[in-house]
Amino acid sequence: MTEYTEMLNRERNAEWRVALRNSVPNKERIAIERVKMTEVEPHERIKSQTCEVNRGLKAEQAQREASRCMDCVTPTCVEGCPVSINIPKFVKQIEAGKFLDAAVTLKEFSALPAVCGRVCPQEKQCELKCFYQQKMQKEPVAIGYLERFAADYERLSGKIQIPKVEARNGIKVAAIGSGPSSLSFAGDMIKFGYEVTVFEALHEIGGVLKYGIPEFRLPNSVVDVELENLKEMGVTFEKNFVVGRTASFDDLKELGYKAFFVGSGAGLPNFMNIPGENLNGVMSSNEYLTRVNLMYANQSDSDTPVMLGKRVAVIGGGNTAMDAVRTSKRLGAERSIIIYRRSLEEMPARLEEIKHAQEEGIEFMNLANPVEYLADAGGRVAKVRLQRMKLGEPDASGRRRPVAIEGDIVEIEVDLVIVAIGVSPNPLIPASLAGLKMSRYGTIEVNEETMQSSIPEIFAGGDIVRGGATVILAMGDGRRAAASMHRYLQEKYKKPTGK
Amino acid sequence: MRSGFFVRKIKLIQRLICMNKIVEKYKLSENVCKFIVEAPMIAKSRKPGNFVILRVGDKGERIPLTIVDSDIEKGTITLIVQNVGASSRKLCQLGAGEFITDMVGPLGKATHIYKAGTILALGGGVGVAPLFPIVKAFKEAGNRVITILAARNKDLVILENEMRQWSDEVIVMTDDGSSGRKGLVTEGAEEVIKREKVDECVAIGPAIMMKFCALLTKKYDVPTQVSLNTIMVDGTGMCGACRVTVNGETKFTCIDGPEFNAHQIDFDELLQRMRAYKNEEDQARNKK
Ligand SMILES: Cc1cc2nc3c(=O)[nH]c(=O)nc-3n(C[C@H](O)[C@H](O)[C@H](O)COP(=O)(O)OP(=O)(O)OC[C@H]3O[C@@H](n4cnc5c(N)ncnc54)[C@H](O)[C@@H]3O)c2cc1C
Ligand SMILES: Cc1cc2nc3c(=O)[nH]c(=O)nc-3n(C[C@H](O)[C@H](O)[C@H](O)COP(=O)(O)OP(=O)(O)OC[C@H]3O[C@@H](n4cnc5c(N)ncnc54)[C@H](O)[C@@H]3O)c2cc1C
Ligand code: SF4
Ligand code: SF4
Ligand code: FES
Fold first, then answer.
1. What is the pLDDT, as a whole number, of residue B261?
2. d(CA B80, CA B82)
3. How confident is residue B287, by pLDDT bands cut at 50, 70 and 90?
4. Chain A closest CA to B101's CA: distance in Å?
5. Comparison of pLDDT for A164 and A231, the residue scoring more
């Protein structure tokens, strides 16, 4: 038995847990139906880019949902969570009405529970591994909803616990980029007593959480509270600062920084390199979402323009594609169409996003792949030519490979096309750091356990290492990097910490 | 233990990075302003060819501007901006003592400066501003530099004195002949190329001017660099708004450029893409 499962067990045997478990027979627990999230009606919510679709659970709803959880001897749900949150503990704390305690439990494992509760692909992670799903073919405990509930409860209660930080040890470290990996790294390092600066190239802190994921899914206010907490704990943020350009790593070392965490993300949008892709009206999802989410281009008092479309096609089937297509609907498109080369089942987007998109009237053209864009007389995109596909043999990833149906080409009329077929790692950092070992995909190579790169004082995590992943994986990387950087620096600079 | 000096130094630097204070402002012509802005980190790191992206106001647009010059001692950079639309106007309305909301840089690849022999530098309109640091650097590298400044009329000729200081010869050309010679920049350039051996040409100005300069130098087989002023948002390679086709391949102007081999650029596509937001920009201009 590992240390961790021992701990889970010990806590499971706490008196209050045993009592709570025995207070309701499992048969009764199983009989409860999974809670339904309160949502804003589709026709209402598509009027606003900032109206959050999910409204959260009420306390009674949360407690009832929490009581479905059987507090399993072997909580398989935990195995599904990339940061191994003690799920049964926080769920049982909710059932017992100890909401603030539940939030504290979450924070032991995750720096951003209010974010992960909203954006984790739960159906592929914790909830997939829930006993209900695995052994009873029943809907899993709504772990994501509950996580969000506890974190929101704490935030709205105004009783956020600012974690205790160690006395400053005078050692300076830097995080590059301000996405979830850097934020969780910074949170841990400040707790350990380091002087932490987060450098961000853009004029806003938060990375994809701010410029990518729209407010109807993740309100900025939720992210801002987390940022405020980090500031309160002593983290310094430098915006408008591109590491490798504004100052080099050597400059920063000269300023006293002893170690670096690179969380610069996978910011470079991919295109398909097909004819017509540089026409006006064809753009990357990053451009579209940045104009709207970071620059507020949809608001009348913003100086930044965004192209509007009546018939919008979004190429791709991931979260980014869903965010872009639902944004286009909110900005007034008559037709918003997802074009994806595989079938609906293979779409990598979160299940909930696909469901919400369908409710909002998004059209799905599956098994189709663009081969060319055609322009109108004014040089703006007017049509997309699509190759119809069918599913062939499974590929390396186990998904069935889409193959072209010879000669089956259709054209549809569009006036805006958003390409959301993935991103590549941003080359700015590697280009400015001779000797940093990179993979052939342009990601930074690290030791998977320590997140340390080929240059000892440089650690890395998140999308720059994984090439495009999830918020929770990025966050887990940041935390692991913090733990091992701490060990590394303690080794290297063993000296009195000035207590 | 930490040294007081060390901490003070850090505090100073940290305070300075986020300053962006306008220390001096000049009007170069009716629609062109010059700013000296406090930005010590950028002043220190920048190279000829680099640009910044700045924003004026909380709902301001991010606009790219070339770093025309810098003073490492004073920790300042020089920007020259032409008032062409809503955002450049907002900037031109700021005066000395005021602050630019956000400014990031230096961005883009630096110009490849080397001893080539004779350089022909062609600047059109406000393109003369980004041309200046390149002229200066080529001169400092020991080249013979011939500069042609082109503008619609006398009032729009900028940086003439500065250019004279760093060029072996300066030819001014205006559309109406109100200053220097009457005619287009390409006419002057052709004369020079016919007159003497030019080893490299650099042309910066409106896209249409760069297109015709490229056609000309191609005819005479003179290697030519142009600096593109595409539409940009982030300037770090994140959005792709600045795409341009170079030698049949899509490149991002902000990280692969802004300078490219003029003979490989698809100028017609560039011209088309620069008009992408024409309607929206016209509205923004008329709104205020
Ligand atoms: C539209 C969209 C929707 C998504 N939806 C989901 C979802 O629902 N669920 C989920 O789990 N994941 C989702 N993801 C993926 C998730 O957001 C990313 O995996 C995660 O944000 C990666 O975090 P990161 O810390 O690596 O960096 P990022 O969030 O990518 O942030 C990196 C930051 O570094 C900055 N930077 C880069 N280079 C430098 C430099 N040299 N100097 C200073 N700063 C620099 C960038 O400006 C950026 O702000 C989505 C992604 C997108 C784009
Ligand atoms: C790398 C780079 C460096 C640049 N350096 C400078 C510089 O040093 N000084 C400077 O003044 N500008 C420079 N520019 C151009 C500058 O960024 C734009 O002029 C500015 O963004 C216009 O914003 P706006 O909102 O004021 O005008 P908009 O409303 O966006 O445009 C107004 C009108 O002007 C036209 N226009 C836009 N840009 C230009 C241009 N560059 N030349 C001619 N017409 C244009 C547009 O087509 C439109 O019709 C640079 C651009 C790039 C990409
Ligand atoms: S962090 Fe994500 S995977 Fe882990 S328990 Fe929370 S919602 Fe599930
Ligand atoms: S597997 Fe499901 S039922 Fe079991 S402890 Fe985890 S959440 Fe509760
Ligand atoms: S400006 Fe966004 S990628 Fe170049």
1. 96
2. 7
3. low
4. 9
5. A231
Residues B124 and B266 reside in one and the same domain? yes
Q: Please give the DSSP secondary-structure letter assigned to residue B263.
A: G
* Token pair of A123 as six digits: 């159906």
Are B84 and B136 part of one and the same domain? Answer: no
DSSP readout, A49-85?
SSS-SB----HHHHHHHHHH----SS-HHHHHSTT--
Residue B73 sits in a domain of what CATH number? 2.40.30.10
Please tell me the residue having the least CA distance from ligand 4 atom 3.
Answer: A69
Q: In this complex, which of B87, B106, B245 lies closest to A245 when CB atoms are compared?
A: B106
Q: Are A325 and A312 in contact (CB under 8 A)?
A: yes
In a domain, B279, yes or no: no
Say yes or no: B11 and B136 in one domain: no
Q: Which residues of A touch B233 (CB under 8 A)?
A: 287, 290-291, 295, 304
In sequence order, the β-bridge partners of residue B203 are B122, B226
Q: B132 lies in which domain range?
A: 118-274
In a domain, B284, yes or no: no
Q: Which atom of ligand 2 is nearest to the CA of B232?
A: 53
Q: Sort out which chain B residues have CB atoms less than 8 A from A305's CB and list them.
A: 277, 280-281, 284
- Residue A29's pLDDT band (boundaries 50, 70, 90)? very high
The residue that leads in pLDDT, A199 or B177, is A199
A342: three-class secondary structure by DSSP: coil
- Do B268 and B194 fall into the same domain? yes
Band of pLDDT at residue B2, cut at 50, 70 and 90: very low
Which band of pLDDT confidence, cut at 50, 70 and 90, is reported for residue B284? low
Cβ within 8 Å of residue A335, ≥6 positions away = A310, A311, A312, A363
A287 touches B at CB < 8 Å: yes
Query: Probe ligand 2: pick from B34, B84, B226, B280, max atoms within 8 Å of CB?
Result: B84
pLDDT, mean of residues B176-200: 91
Domain count, chain B: 2
Q: Which CATH number belongs to the domain containing residue B241 in this structure?
A: 3.40.50.80
- Please say which residue of B107, B126, B142 terminates a domain: B107
The answer to whether residue B285 is domain-embedded is no
Is the CB of residue A337 less than 8 Å from the CB of residue A412?
yes
Helix or strand holding residue A185 (H, E): helix A180-192
Among A230, A224, A221, CA closest to A186: A230
Residues B144 and B250 in one domain: yes
| CB-based contact, A493 to chain B, within 8 Å | no
Residue A475 makes CB contacts below 8 A (sequence gap 6+) with A83, A110, A111, A112, A116, A180, A181, A183, A184
- Rg, Å, chain A Cα set: 24
- Tell which of B233, B246, B266 to mutate to test the A interface (max A CBs under 10 Å): B233
B200 assigned to some structural domain: yes
Question: With 50 as the cut, is the pLDDT of residue A306 above it?
Answer: yes
Å between A353 CA and nearest CA of chain B: 23
Chain B CB within 8 Å of residue A382 CB:
no
* Minimum Cα–Cα distance from B234: chain A residue: A202
Q: From atom 8 of ligand 3, which residue's Cα is the shortest distance away? A: A126
Residues B79 and B135 in one domain: no
Q: Are residues B43 and B19 in the same domain?
A: yes
Asked if B61 and A295 come within 8 Å (Cβ–Cβ), the reply is: yes
Domain end: B42, B77, B107, which one?
B107
> Chain A residue closest to B105 (CA)?
A246
Residues having CB closer than 6 A to ligand 3 are: A 81, 83, 85, 87, 110, 116-117, 120, 122, 125-126, 143-144, 147, 472
pTM score of the predicted model = 0.93
